[in-house]
Amino acid sequence: MGTSQDGIRVEECGKRVRAYIGGHLVADTTRPSLVWEIPYYPMYYIPEEDVRAELKAEGPAEGPPELGEGTSYTVMAGGREVHGAARSRDALPGLIRLDWKAMDGWFEEDEEVFIHPRDPHHRLDILASSRHVRVEVDGVTVAESSSPRMLFETSLPVRYYLPKAHVRMDLLEPTATVTGCPYKGTAEYWSVRVNGTVHQDLAWGYRAPVAESQKIAGLVCFYDEKVDVFVDGVRQERPITPF
């Protein structure tokens, strides 16, 4: 069931959620709430009685003004004190938000989840296609394939994942950049060198994606926002996204 706190969506969630610091249980609940403090993804708010660690109030906490005043807490678990690792909000009485990055591990049921909670309204479809996809960087064709995997993800433009055999891997240079996604896994990146210019972190791929995204394992995707993509000979408009 969903509610709204002055425009911020709040939904109950039936998953068992646990958080740990240094192997010590900080919270264990079957009654978490999902709160969209920002539009892109939610965070967990946990009933105060399901927080197992000791909380020590620090002072006022920053946060969206729609949720009223807040209090910041130090979380004490396993002999460690993590400052600012929890907060409460006046508009959500009895609930505690644990800072995601301050925890060493989060679990939904018995599966570890990374980066942020999964959004129940977020959908991801990966479809095999025979559409012809060609990618240009600075006028140079760097990839061309008639067997792409097309990834459709809520609120994002379609992404074209291409076999490495159809990509000019000789023009790609691996970088140290790594990002994570709770729906796909951990991505590695490549820069593209064409016409004497290096275009930083222009392509990425998932060597070992999570189970639901195995169809894109080992494939390469380019930022449509920064390259020219032609689908069945038609140049696509560059999408405008946070990326």
Please explain how this structure is put together:
By secondary structure, this protein is mainly beta. It folds into two domains: 2-112, Domain of unknown function (DUF427) (Metal Binding Protein, Guanine Nucleotide Exchange Factor, Chain A, Beta Complex); 124-235, Domain of unknown function (DUF427) (Metal Binding Protein, Guanine Nucleotide Exchange Factor, Chain A). The protein is built from no helices and 23 strands. The strands form four sheets. Strands 1-2-5-6-10-9-8-7 form an eight-stranded antiparallel β-sheet, with no helix packed on it. It has a seven-stranded antiparallel β-sheet with strand order 13-16-17-21-20-19-18, with no helix packed on it. It has a four-stranded antiparallel β-sheet with strand order 4-3-11-12, with no helix packed on it. Strand 3 and strand 4 (24-29) form a beta hairpin. The mean pLDDT is 94.
Ordered list of secondary-structure elements with their pairings:
Blueprint lengths: L1 E4 L2 E5 L4 E5 L2 E6 L3 E3 L7 E5 L6 E7 L9 E8 L2 E10 L5 E4 L6 E4 L2 E2 L11 E5 L4 E5 L2 E6 L3 E5 L5 E4 L9 E10 L3 E10 L2 E9 L14 E3 L5 E4 L2 E2 L8
Antiparallel strand pairs: 1-2, 2-5, 3-4, 3-11, 5-6, 6-10, 7-8, 8-9, 9-10, 11-12, 13-16, 14-15, 14-22, 16-17, 17-21, 18-19, 19-20, 20-21, 22-23
